[in-house]
Amino acid sequence: MDDTPIGRAAQLAVEALGRAGQGLPRPEQTRVMVVANQKGGVGKTTTTVNLAASLALHGARVLVVDLDPQGNASTALGVDHHAEVPSVYDVLVEARPLAEVVQPVPDVEGLFCAPATIDLAGAEIELVSLVARESRLKRAIDAYEQPLDYIFIDCPPSLGLLTVNAMVAGNEVLIPIQCEYYALEGLGQLLHNVDLVRGHLNPRLHVSTILLTMYDGRTRLASQVADEVRGHFGAEVLRTSIPRSVRISEAPSYGQTVLTYDPGSSGSLSYLEAAREMALRGMPRQAEAHHERHDGGAQ
Ligand code: ADP
Ligand code: MG
After folding, report:
1. Stretch (H or E) spanning 12
2. 44 CB under 6 A from ligand 1?
3. pTM value?
4. Most buried among 3, 81, 143, 280, by the most CB within 10 A?
């Protein structure tokens, strides 16, 4: 499917799992995944780019919207995002069509990225005085005419207007949780914001997917945190957790996902498996059942 060497290597890894040929079910409608957790460093960006690449390697058409002024997702996908590049900032603040900023991701067919530049740091404040400030990303996505199976929105580590824009545009929230002390701290606030957005701005929004990241199976702490998260969330937690892996953390400095950087590594295989689980479960129809269980919330 791809004629670059790393793209081919990644494709071979997918085929080695024996699953590329049989493919994954394509969603009937675009699944818009909001990757959110107001804590920094929990694996939002890593999860965004690697799940997106996994699904694209399985034949899906996937767009990553980089909504973090740091631009880490753009970097990891090898997409140009220096200051003059048309970016998500122009889409949000200048109402520029999304199609004018989307770039194909090198080496992964079917994967696209709307990059973030440093301008986006100002957007949080500039948005305040704009009309329909909460729904500007949604409008842009609704007007985007290319067919897509998935959109992943990589949120900044805050619950401000950028994240609200993502929640208004999305149907599903995907929360990466790092397996360490205080993993659940602050989650109550995130879930509360999801409830607020659902109540006032976007009735479809629900937490569909929790992914445990940087899991170190050798430590008792990691398994305790995992048990606690599964106790709180149950069905939303993917069975696959992502191990702590040097290859995962090295890949972005080569402008690559771990899928192309080291296709056979444990990090690559675990993201492929998590993507498969995500594709096989959780269609928007299940939203109602999921809501009830969140009422207790985490602390
Ligand atoms: P966030 O977007 O939530 O701030 P990142 O995805 O940028 O978090 O991850 C934070 C740091 O942890 C990055 O340096 C990243 O490379 C590293 N990292 C993320 N996931 C893993 C993992 N499974 N194993 C090792 N390092 C990881
Ligand atoms: Mg990030």
Report:
1. helix 5-16
2. yes
3. 0.91
4. 81
